[in-house]
């Protein structure tokens, strides 16, 4: 019974890693939509998000079936609870990518991002996408080195967001609405990155048994 | 054994409800800090958030002890997993209140919110606080009427946020930085409200066994 549970649990973790990769695709597509006012890319991002939500619902249902049908011991339950929690993180990542895609759709055919900020958002998009890929790798490998890489990437996102605020607070000729859009978009990327870090922290916890202190933010 | 587990589980749910009330206090204090540039209120909000995080860590630890020491059946486990998940929602509510308080601190002694927007933010603060109180009531009562009230309140928050965007997109003489601040603050209140709704939805699910369809956002 325990072997079977473990096999099913490993399959659930693998599904979770695949969903983190779907979140990576969703934010990549959303960033293209944003920077190029590309409606087709926006639609692909939304579709990735819908697929992600559908498969998360199935994963959660599987997790509850595992609870009901097999009698997992406490350590396995801990992993199972973590899988359910991380599912919520990945769901948010998909929603945040969708918010970015929606912003591109709402302003189309205008480009939301002023030229000056394109490099900042391009880099934010690249790092965020890489973080989702790395979170998936950490889930698959349970390797602490994969998890540790996320911290440095998160620092990059924070730095880019500060650069964004400096631009808005400086000589900003693009008006209030564009400033509000840029601030919210920066927030979406930042939160996407935070969720990837949360996945890495949970993997570290499962491997080492030591909770990562979550900084009050 | 099962009776003991249920007693402990009920205690955990009660703790969770208390923490939702702490989140209500945190957003009330943060709103005072925001509207009146009141540093002492900001500090009280931060302190509520710190207390909330500390008690959530303890609650999570208790939940895992329950898994380890008692042999819960599947339906009880489902409640336990829900308790852990809702803990994450309440943690976010505390963080969002802290973000609002930090914004007030960062801009002090200036008031962040232009006069014109004070009524919008005052009402957002009141509704958000009430939603946390109502989420706590839903957790304590497991009453679907308590849970249902949250949906209407959430509509109010969405309406207020639209009003906020209309102001920013209209004749806005306050500059780009103030627009960015206002947009982010509106987002914090909206997310706070979303988490309260998620708590209510989970309560409905525990009571009725029917998952509330989460709208893709």
TrEMBL record, chains A, B:
Cellular localization per UniProt: Cytoplasm
Q: Which UniProt keywords apply?
A: Coiled coil, Cytoplasm, Phosphate transport, Transport
Family, similarity comment: Belongs to the PhoU family.
Where is it mainly found? cytoplasm
User: PhoU domain: which residues?
Assistant: 19-103, 122-203
Q: What is this protein called?
A: Phosphate-specific transport system accessory protein PhoU
Q: Which InterPro entries does the record match to this protein?
A: PhoU, PhoU-like_sf, PhoU_dom
Subunit info here reads: Homodimer.
A Pfam family per the record: PhoU
* Coiled-coil regions listed in the entry: 2-62
The source organism is Cryptosporangium minutisporangium
Protein origin, superkingdom:
Bacteria
Report the protein's function: Plays a role in the regulation of phosphate uptake.
């Amino acid at each position: 019974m325990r072997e079977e549970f473990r096999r099913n649990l490993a399959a659930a973790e693998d599904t979770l890693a695949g969903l983190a990769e779907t979140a990576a695709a969703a934010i990549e597509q959303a960033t293209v939509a944003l920077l190029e006012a590309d409606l087709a890319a926006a639609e692909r991002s939304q579709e990735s998000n819908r697929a992600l939500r559908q498969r998360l619902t199935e994963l959660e249902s599987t997790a509850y079936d595992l609870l009901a049908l097999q009698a997992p011991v406490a350590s396995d339950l801990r992993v199972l609870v973590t899988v359910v929690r991380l599912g919520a993180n990945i769901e948010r990542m998909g929603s945040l990518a969708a918010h970015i895609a929606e912003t591109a759709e709402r302003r189309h055919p205008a480009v939301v991002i002023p030229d000056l900020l394109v490099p900042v958002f391009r880099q934010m998009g690249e790092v965020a996408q890489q973080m989702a890929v790395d979170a998936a790798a950490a889930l698959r490998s349970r390797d602490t080195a994969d998890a540790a890489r996320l911290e440095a990437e998160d620092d990059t996102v924070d730095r880019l967001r500060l650069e964004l605020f400096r631009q808005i607070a400086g000589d900003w000729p693009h008006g209030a609405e564009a400033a509000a859009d840029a601030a919210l978009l920066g927030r979406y990327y930042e939160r996407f990155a935070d969720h990837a870090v949360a996945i890495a922290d949970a993997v570290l916890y499962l491997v080492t048994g030591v909770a990562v202190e979550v900084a009050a933010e």
